[in-house]
Amino acid sequence: MARRCSNPLLYLFNYTTVRYVVTQNKIVGLLYRFFQLIIMCYLIGWVFVTKKGYQVVDDTIESSVVTKVKGIARVNTTFSDLWGPEEYVIPDHGGKFLFVVTNFIETPNQTLTTCPESPSVPFSTCTHDDNCTEGEAVRAGNGIKTGTCRKTDGNETNTCEIYGWCPTEKPRREAATMLREAENFTVYIRNFIKFSQFNLSKTNILKEGYPSYIKTCLHDEIHHPYCPVFRLGDIVSKAGYRFEEVAAKGGSIGIVIKWSCDFDMDTSDCHPQYSFMSMGSSTPVTAGYNFRFARYSSDAAGRTHRNLYKVYGFQLNVMVFGTASQFSIIHTIINVASVLTLMAVGSYICDVILLFMVKKKYAKFESLIKADKEIALQKMPDHSKRKFSH
Ligand SMILES: Nc1ncnc2c1ncn2[C@@H]1O[C@H](COP(=O)(O)OP(=O)(O)OP(=O)(O)O)[C@@H](O)[C@H]1O
Question: What confidence tens digit (pLDDT) does each residue in 191-217 have?
Fold first, then answer.
């Protein structure tokens, strides 16, 4: 020890290595080859063939979506008997989210005046004026109470009189108008994507035959899988809805565009896959989708009138996902190296097995020595026995 410390510089030029021992043990030898075989199968079958470990993957897709709906529906409203996309698509500039009206309740020609509150509004019924506190807003109602309890138009019930947009909206079953042609409306979806890591971009619009192809095609998984024009009825049925049911109450649908691009192949093989899913719940409280909007006008006397619309329909939400992959030498080296380190695990297990077997042999040898020692002890005189045993 003293000598070692006296010359520490000598250790600077020392190199420590492992001494390998070749054993003739067939079981351990076979086991080691078996480990190597499994690891090679894992490297080739799983890492390279299945998971394409020689490629780098980019799943940060940048995308833009433009939508346009076309089709005409016959309706019966105060201002028109035909509705086009300008009327039934909200908002009218197409984007990732759009709403297509399929059913609506029109309350035409409302003016700001007094009228009885709708009996369908909770807490609106009354028996005498004391139930209608003047100046109080009706909770979830249509106006401010005037302090009078009065008979509703065409109804036997009494409700508080309000100041608001009158007459109030009629219940749905009396006034709803369906857009029967909505099933045949067409939805055009233009999608542009970019994988920044590879600086490569794609669009779902095929260059060949454009624009005449788009004008005439209709998306069909077998005959026109890359046509970007979809029939609304097909979208709804593929999302698992029955058109008539959801057109009446409204619903949300997700249009999923999935890109899976292998840029080691021909980039023209990189095409979108479309799928559709319902995004609503089927419980009565949460099912359906509707909202209200109003269109305002003024009469000759300068009085403001409005038409109120409660609209039901399909809320379409276009979602884009994608991954792109390309060969990368760094990724290949990392994956090969990390799998090859597993070989060390195989060696370690074989070492442990070998040690365990050797230990067993050694234990047998030790028990023989112990037996010899006991025989020798028995032959010794007593005073030597004590010394020896100590
Ligand atoms: N909902 C749709 N259904 C069927 N074809 C559509 C639809 N929306 C657009 N198209 C067609 O797709 C092509 C590309 O539409 P884009 O909006 O880019 O061009 P456009 O000439 O402005 O279209 P538009 O015909 O509305 O004037 C056009 O030929 C258009 O007619």
Answer: 999 999 888 889 998 766 567 888 889
What are the beta bridge partners of residue 66? 190
- pTM of structure: 0.76
**DSSP state at residue 184:** G
CA of 215 to the centre of ligand 1 (A): 7
Pairing of strands 176-178, 97-116: antiparallel
Superfamily of domain 61-109+172-327: atp-gated p2x4 ion channel domain (2.60.490.10)
Residues lining ligand 1, Cβ inside 6 A: 68-70, 186-188, 211, 214-215, 229
Of 69-73, 204-208, 258-262, 296-300, give the lowest mean pLDDT range: 204-208
Consult the annotation and say whether 109 binds a ligand: no
ipTM: 0.96
Distance 184 CA to ligand 1 centre (A): 16
The residues spanned by each domain of the chain are 20-54+328-351, 61-109+172-327, 118-167
Burial class (CB in 10 A: 0-12, 13-18, 19+), 131: middle
Whether the per-residue pLDDT at 366 is higher than 70: the answer is no
